[in-house]
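Table S2 (continued). Query chain:
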Amino acid sequence: MMESTTAQNGATPRGSDGVHDETIAKLDRMAGQIADFFKAYPEAEAVPAIADHINQFWTSRMRADFLAAHRARPEGLTPLLGKVLPLIRPPRSG
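Corresponding output:
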């Protein structure tokens, strides 16, 4: 019998948005660390700086997963990250 933490194919089950909960937790932690670095900056500088860092250094998949998890429900983010969310570039389709 398989454990409840694995799907029948051995993969981790996906969350309600089709994204691994563990992956989202890691991305949330990473985004929080970036926001913590910039929280001493004025908000007008911090918000675009955080978005710029995520857009430059996160892969398309990371950005897509983060956006999929939080676009519909940004209340799970800190207020600073909530303001960053619209500035994160979605991956190019196609």
